[in-house]
Amino acid sequence: MTEPTPRRTAASAPVPTVDVHAHVLLPEVDALVTGLPGHAEARALDARRNGPAALAVSGPMVRDRIPRLTDPAVRLAAMDAQGVDVQLVSPSPSHYHYWADEDTAEKVYRTANEATAAHCSAAPDRLRGLGLVPLQHPGQSVRALDHALAQGLLGVEISSHAPARELSDPAYAPFWARAEETGALLFLHPFGCTLDERLDRWYLSNTVGQPAENAVALSHLIFSGVLDRHPGLKLIAAHGGGYLPTHIGRSDHAWATRSDAGTDCAHPPSSYLKRLYFDSLVHDPHVLRELIRVAGADRVLLGSDFPFDMGTADPVGALRGARLTEADLDAVRGRNAVVLLHLASA
């Protein structure tokens, strides 16, 4: 008896490779803020945090990448070379401008949202976008998120903190509620580190500062109970969540041992890792395997930090270097993102 031919299903169809950590540079935003009160001071702070040696390297590095950051055709060619089918494109974190007053902040987020949407519209089947919200003005956050979604963007990118505000601040409660209600994606990507000039040499501002900021921000969301109150949040942490996933046992110990640590979140901190999403950009196959162990293969997404030098030019190769099972590799390479981003091929 001849066996019937199996019906081709979505689960058996080829899964696209999806990079959820890719940036766009928006000259429109730079033109908007240049010369405004507070802009020069913010640039001076950034310079102090990074140090002169880092600035001397970063300037030429960014200039060399401007075509990939601004021209959709150049971006798509680079994606083809990498074997990437879809990018989730977020503004360069240099566009946060959390120093801005309310009027300027509204202009920034509207300009950034509209410009990102326009960039992605050049190839809507391959480029999906995220906008910005002004975390320094919590009262604008819901309007900014709604504006991003109205442009066809999938959500917004946020930093690890705003001046004098942590992500645990109760003022953000309406923002978390609206993000949960709409199913918007939140991409947590730090910019700047509050350790400031302690990290102003050897590019420690990025190599140490970014993973430290990720760990602090995620800890605020966990220990404050934000994730208990908003279990449906769809939050992706850049850089594999920084130092937190590989040191989550210390957080669990504090939660179980100290009354002050365990007051505001209902469950051990490690359990919340399975409610979050993480990109794969950790630069070490052993760390990636550990991230998958503690968070689950269904919670890790391919990320490259395109096209900056602290990213990877071969994200799929880096993923394969972790020697995952085929099922886990397939999930991280694209299957998880297909579901999360509601891609048509799902």
UniProtKB/TrEMBL annotation:
UniProt keyword annotations, A-Z: Lyase
Ranges of residues in domain Amidohydrolase-related: 18-342
Q: Which domain of life is it from?
A: Bacteria
- Stored Pfam families: Amidohydro_2 (PF04909)
Please name the taxonomic classification of the source.
Answer: Bacteria, Bacillati, Actinomycetota, Actinomycetes, Kitasatosporales
Asked whether the keyword Lyase is assigned, the reply is yes
Residue ranges spanning the membrane: these are none
Which PANTHER family does the record cross-reference, listed alphabetically? 2-AMINO-3-CARBOXYLMUCONATE-6-SEMIALDEHYDE DECARBOXYLASE, ISO-OROTATE DECARBOXYLASE (EUROFUNG)
Is Lyase included in the keywords of this UniProt record? yes
Q: State the InterPro entries in the record.
A: ACMSD, Amidohydro-rel, Metal_Hydrolase
What protein name does the entry list?
Answer: Amidohydrolase
